[in-house]
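Final report, Chapter 2: Outcomes

The project's central promise was a pipeline that accepts a single protein chain and returns its three-dimensional structure in a standardized token representation, suitable for archiving and comparison. That pipeline is now operational. To close this chapter, we reproduce one record exactly as it appears in the project archive, with the input sequence first and the structure output second.
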Amino acid sequence: MAIVRMKHLSVMAMAAERKKLFELLSHIGVVEISETALHDGFSRVENPASERLSEELSAVKSAISIAKRYGSFKKGLFSPRPEIGERDFLDDALISAALSDAKKITTAEATLSRSRAEVARLSAVAETYAPWCELDVPLDCLSGKFYDTTLATVPASKSAEDIGQTVADASELSECFVVSADRELKYVFVLSFSDDTERVRDAIKQIGGAIVRFAGVDKTAKEKIAEIKKEISELEKAISDTEASLSVTEEIYDRLLIAQDALDTKLSVANAEKMGIGTERVFYIEGWCPAREEKMLTGIFEENGTAYEFRDPQEDEEPPTLTQNSRLISPFETVTNMYSPPAYRGIDPNPLMAPFFAMFFGIMLSDAGYGLLLMLAGVFALAKMNPRGGFKNFMQLAIICGASTVVWGILFGGIFGNTIPSVYELFTGKIFPYSIAVWFDPSQNPMKMLIFSMVLGGVQIVVSMAIKGYMLIREGHVWDAVFDIGSWWLVFAGAVTCIFNTNIGLYILIAGLAALILTQGRAKKNIIMKFFGGVMSIYDITSYFSDILSYSRLLALSLATAVVSQVVNTMGVLTGPVGFFIVFVIGHVFNIAINLIGSFVHSARLQYVEFFGRFYESGGRLFNPLSIKTKNIDVIKEEN
């Protein structure tokens, strides 16, 4: 089809009608609001609701994330999205209820996090007491008028005798006990006279030990651990109760999903309002809409007493791009947009690119079995998941490219590789006597496949040049089209004709080269420079040749798919009937996954570089109207 013609829209209305008008535009969904330049006497529209809506949206998103982890429901991949009427969707009561749910959920989750953190802390404290369980005295070191007790840790490499001797050297009348030990430390209890305490502790430090203090702990380690376990038990019960409160129902979860999309819509409307300007009494906005919607919008504005103006884009303005294509072509818009949307004043490449992309994809994957699986996956996803937007386009693209793969797989004899001959050999022990390729097998005739690939490349390059010629003629540069495109076509025609009739081909080729020499330097001022400019343009033939050679990737990818699948089948035959099935499934799943990505990437690359490079004007900005856009639910449109 084509790029949709756009109209610039200016609207002025009473300030009291601002909210109503923006809600109406959101409902219609055909106007993109652009930021309006400030004028004398006007100021930027302020909408304090946007900050509040942003905070509420963030709270609901957090609650949804929590509900997914603790919900008592199960949402499968193919579960249908909730449906709701447009009026109910934007109902403040529903949003208020969802916000109340979100607050309860986030509060409970915060409580849960604190309780778990406390359990972790208490568990860590209990671990510090565990080595002292055999010590039947309070951990806060007992001190008297004449004695002190010391708790210490010493490296495990030190023997109990060495530790005892170290303590004895510091204080002859002290007693040292190793309470427990692990792989790293020994836990030591020392009883000594008060006058010797510092010497004892210094001696322990000199052998790598550390003094342990449990200030204020007037209980034994066992008593303290029991006390901690009781606290942990109480906390775990509280955690269990909190988790139960977080086990929200599907009804609450769906309400949160609706609220998320509703708040997102309201926020987009609030932000759009801030792009306008106004005074205390009026406001003014500008934007873009498809020209075909002018009549409908005119009726709405007049019905609501709104001042408006439509006009065509000015030369220095770059309107957003909206393409209009058939259901068969529109999925390929995703491929183009991955590169860059077309410029508004450019040309929509999708109708011309789509057949080449689908054909090249099918040739590269070139297996009817793989293509059938791809088609079924696309049909299943569309039927069960009801996708929208880019994902829907990808699934439709999978069906179209899968159908192309089936066709080329049949032509090249690829049905899960050479499965039919392999199964025949597995059960009969004989070589399959027939070729299953309707046309030819690229793995058996790679040169024929290479020539076919380059012919297809030549055709696409000629088509790209034709589009460029059309664009030049459309812009009034007829002679540029004749000289820059027609001259090269003569060269190509001469080269091809030489294959069949050398004499006629040479005449055409010479005519084409002469046309290039005489015309390609026409932009130069000096006649000598004009001549040399024309001569040097002939060097561009190497660029065309390298571009055509780039299409040899059609051969490379088709061989990659075929050879790997044949290897998989051959390995399966060697393992017997049962092993064949296992190897078949694993091998072909791997092969289709790898070559599916390769086929898409290289098909896209041929479009982006070899095809688009000669005519495509990129850098467009996709039309993004103010509308109800949802991620989680389906909104049923209702008339106001």
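Archive annotation: The first helix runs from residue 18 to 28.
This record, like all others produced under the grant, will remain available to the consortium after the project formally closes.
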